[in-house]
Specification:
By secondary structure, this protein is α/β, with parallel strands linked by helices. It contains 10 helices and 12 strands. The longest helix has 17 residues.
Length: about 300
């Protein structure tokens, strides 16, 4: 039986994001037309093979857990990308994390898919960021990305919002060097600041009318996100946007979700984060504006879940 090639269109993106199709078209329509989102759904036997291999990988303790002990890994990883950025003459594509490679299946809408092009994961995420940033970030003068890494998110923001002040917070010096190099190359108002989630510096204040943003950053805290939430609350940002993998969205009674949750736990990713925010909302400390599972992810789990909230 021949596999049927499908393609993600604007309406599909809108369903994934929980957005209006006209809004996605307005923010991202031009970008979507320049990218190729063709894919095939993998057959049942291949799906079972992937699920079994993922379970074995978790059971055999092949996965590194998140936490403070991984600082040297991030220094090495961002150092390599810093060198790539310089070697490429400042090509922004060099900032893309190296684990976004295109030679593997991805998760989409409850299936495993095989993209036709190797940049599919990067491109889907780029469309998501264009929609998210334009919908939620436009009203704020200052944007602070905590755990900004290579600065690839900030580079997108700088192009969308030329007048905003952008701050990249990260715990390794290679990140600050990257942001300095990006700012110098493109003349963007991006500033790198040393910030350690594990050693919070309350003397570091954010400016008024600021948005706090994290993307696949809180997952690296080995579950210890409470301190950062306290720090955020103390600084009273105008809005908080977290794009993170959240265990609450997985149904452990379904094999596809169970395997993602098993991987999530093996990596010591966020445990109870969304539940904690919902408790804060119940206590009338915050308001959750919206939260969603987009249904898109890498081979083992889904990182494009989001929650947007503000203080009361």
């Amino acid at each position: 039986m021949n596999e049927v090639t499908k393609s993600i269109n604007t309406a599909d993106f809108a369903r994934a994001f929980g957005a209006d199709e006209a809004e996605v078209s307005r923010f991202c329509g031009g970008l979507i037309k320049t990218l190729d989102f063709k894919y095939t759904v993998l057959p049942q036997e291949k799906r079972e093979e992937l699920l079994l291999n993922a379970i074995k990988k978790c059971d055999n303790a092949e996965l590194s857990a998140s936490g403070a002990h991984r600082k040297s890994d991030w220094r090495r990883g961002w150092g390599e990308i810093l060198q790539d950025f310089h070697n490429s003459g400042g090509d922004l594509k060099a900032l893309v994390p190296k684990d976004w490679h295109g030679d593997r299946p991805l998760r989409y809408n409850g299936d495993y898919i095989m993209p036709s092009f190797g940049t599919f994961e990067r491109d889907f995420t780029l469309v998501f960021r264009h929609w998210l940033y334009q919908k939620y970030f436009a009203d704020y003068e200052n944007i602070y990305e905590f755990g900004c890494g290579t600065g690839h998110n900030l580079a997108v923001m700088a192009q969308l919002f030329p007048g905003k002040r952008l701050f990249g917070m990260d715990w390794v010096p290679e990140s600050q060097e990257l942001l300095s190099a990006i700012a110098a190359k493109y003349g963007w108002p991006i500033k790198g600041i040393h910030f350690d989630f594990f050693k919070l510096d309350y003397s570091l204040k954010i400016l008024p009318n600021s948005l706090i943003y994290t993307s696949s950053a809180l997952e690296q805290l080995d579950g210890d996100y409470g301190g950062f939430l306290d720090y955020s609350m103390a600084n009273r940002p105008a809005l908080c946007v977290n794009v993170e993998c959240m265990a609450e969205y997985y149904d452990e009674n379904q094999l596809y979700d169970y395997v993602a949750l098993k991987y999530h736990k093996a990596r010591h990713y966020l445990n109870g984060f969304l539940t904690h925010l919902r408790g804060m909302e119940k206590d009338k400390k915050i308001q959750i504006i919206t939260t969603r599972r987009t249904g898109f992810g890498s081979l083992y789990h889904e990182g494009l879940m989001y929650v947007i909230w503000k203080l009361l």
